[in-house]
Amino acid sequence: MRNRLCLLGAATAAALDASMPARLRAVLQKPQISVMPCCYDGVTARLVERAGFELTFMTGFGVAAARGYADAGLLSFGEMQDSARMIASALKAIPFFADGDTGYGNAVNCKRTVRGYAQVGAAGVMIEDQVSPKRCGHTGVKAVVPRDEAVARVRAACDARDEHGGGLVVIARTDANACLGFDEALDRCRRFREVGADVTFLEAPTSVAQMETYCREVDGWKLANMLEGGLTPVLPPADLEAMGYTIAAYPLTLLSASTRTSLEALARLDRGASTEDLLLPFGELCDVVGFTEYNAEAARYAAET
Q1: Cα three-residue angle 167-171-173, rounded to 5 degrees
Q2: C-alpha torsion 128→131→132→135, nearest 10
Q3: Per its UniProt record, what Gene3D superfamilies does this chain match (predicted)?
Q4: Which residues, 6 or more positions from 33, have their beta carbon under 8 angstroms from its beta carbon?
Q5: Could you tell me where the beta strands, DSSP code E, fall in the chain?
Q6: Are 223 and 232 in contact (CB under 8 A)?
């Protein structure tokens, strides 16, 4: 794939002293679409980076699931910020977006949410226009706040970005398509751009025609949410790029794949069957979670004593 860390070469290596938001903006400015698998904890963040992707997104659905809850507004900002801190610590070179949900209150709360994520290492934050408590965009009945309130949230997020001075990337998401219609969702995306959103995210378009219209009628960077089994057609990245999308996000691929494999492993254990073909070699698992790096560091310091 074109958007892989292994293709960055010496130019990226020389730019490792740049801020994470600057790295994220550099990725988004490329003409090719960025494929963005989403993570929800330290090990999935490591896996995305290890696979060579240039960016990732901390999915609220996944974070909630990892803590034993549905993505229905049950987690606090403190819990989400703690997960963002974990992901920032696990990543070495690639930037990530944090899921800011509804901003956890009014516009002032939204500013605090953006600042708080920036403080723990997020390069970007997504803010959405659902009422609180929110719901996953492809499950159940949703409701959104009035347009002016939605725009105020995004404007506050952009103000926090600008006041922070770090160039954080703001994604403005609308779920209006599901409850107020496609025209309202388009208008909200336009308004979000007017108040400074870097990326717009029209959630859950239900047809290729809606996706094409959105890309044609809203300027700026745009995110496509490729949820397998969801409401939106899942298209190849090349097709999304041709439409005008900047990012192809895969929010639940890692969570769903690991859950399926875990269920199969548990079923086999229950019937006394082998799980060997489902597992990584132990040495590779140790490498993924950081033992190789740890042992190398320990050996270096042992040699100096």
Answers
A1: 160
A2: -70
A3: Phosphoenolpyruvate-binding domains
A4: 3, 237, 238, 240, 241, 245, 246, 247, 248
A5: 34-39, 56-58, 96-99, 124-128, 169-174, 199-202, 221-225, 247-250
A6: no
Residue pointed to by tokens 């229905």 = 72
> Could you give the CA distance from residue 4 to residue 196 in angstroms, rounded to a whole number?
29
Residue partners of 291: CB distance under 8 A and separation at least 6: none
Structural domains in the chain? Answer: 5-260 (3.20.20.60), 274-305 (no CATH)
Written as one string, the DSSP assignment of 47-87 is HHHHTTBS-EEE-HHHHHHHTT--TTT-S-HHHHHHHHHHH
Q: What are the angstrom distances between the C-alpha of 305 and each of 123, 206, 270, 293, 302?
A: 39, 63, 49, 19, 5
**pTM for this entry:** 0.91
- Tens of pLDDT along 252-281? 999 999 999 999 999 999 999 999 999 999
Report yes or no: 84 and 122 within 8 Å, Cβ to Cβ.
Answer: yes
- How far CA 10 is from CA of 19, 141, 176, in Å, comes to 17, 48, 43
pLDDT band, very low/low/confident/very high, at 140 (cuts 50, 70, 90): low
Tokens of 271: 């019937």
Taking the C-alpha atoms of residue 58 and residue 98, their distance in angstroms, rounded to an integer, is: 5
